[in-house]
Amino acid sequence: MQAEFRARVSMKNPVHFLALGFGSGLVPVMPGTFGSLAAIPLLLLCAQVSTLSFIAVTLMASVIGIYLCGKTADDMQVHDHGSIVWDEIAGMFVTFLFLPVTASTLVIGFLLFRVFDILKPWPIGIIDKRLHGGTGIMLDDLLAGAMACGCLHIAINLWPAVLTLF
Fold first, then answer.
1. Are the C-beta atoms of residues 57 and 109 closer than 8 Å to each other?
2. Burial of residue 97, with CB atoms counted within 10 A of its CB: 0-12 exposed, 13-18 middle, 19 or more buried
3. Tens of pLDDT along 128-145?
4. Which terminus of the chain faces fewer neighbouring Cβ atoms within 10 Å, N or C?
5. Does residue 40 contact residue 60 with C-beta atoms inside 8 Å?
6. CA dihedral in degrees (17, 79, 92, 7; nearest 10)?
7. What number of other Cβ atoms are within 10 A of residue 102's Cβ?
8. Cβ density class 28-50: b for 16+ within 10 Å, e for less
9. Strand stretches in the chain, DSSP E
10. In angstroms, what CA-CA distances link 129 with 119, 124, 136, 146?
11. DSSP state of 163
């Protein structure tokens, strides 16, 4: 069954290449986790830009992701196939809005994002079930990123040593 879906996408197609997280979504186990890991080099690169530029990149990744994920899901003929991980990449960017990107925040932010993305607490689970297409694929991960971001902000404000744990 998995091979059938993969036969409908091509890594030579730039839309599929991006939606599949540069190929990280094709890992047979935990593709969402590998998609989230694929965001880390991009986050490290973008950590060097201004806050306004980081916001712009995050918005662009989120808006473009609606098309990328929706088109790839249509081509695969499966809504939100696990190998579509651009939503995880954008969600990781949301996680780090207005935060310094350090080894500590990367580890904690990554873990928080994965917890929210996997457990899908309210309202993430409702959105995941009720919204379809590219918007539905993207929105639950963007909310998971927002929740992880909020938790990370709280942790840093309550315990500033979080920034230097690792």
1. no
2. middle
3. 889 989 999 999 999 999
4. N
5. no
6. -20
7. 16
8. eeebbbbbbbbbeeebeebeeee
9. none
10. 13, 9, 8, 19
11. G
Q: Hey, what amino acid is at 119?
A: L
> pLDDT tens digits, residue range 8-46?
888 999 999 999 999 999 999 999 999 999 999 999 999
Amino acid at position 3, single letter: A
Q: For residue 40, which amino acid is it?
A: I
Nearest CA to 80 out of 129, 115, 37 is that of 129
Handedness of CA 85, 46, 13, 28 (dihedral sign): negative
Rounded CA-CA distance 98/39 in Å is 17
* Model confidence at 156: pLDDT above 70: yes
Tell me the two tokens of residue 51: 């806050």
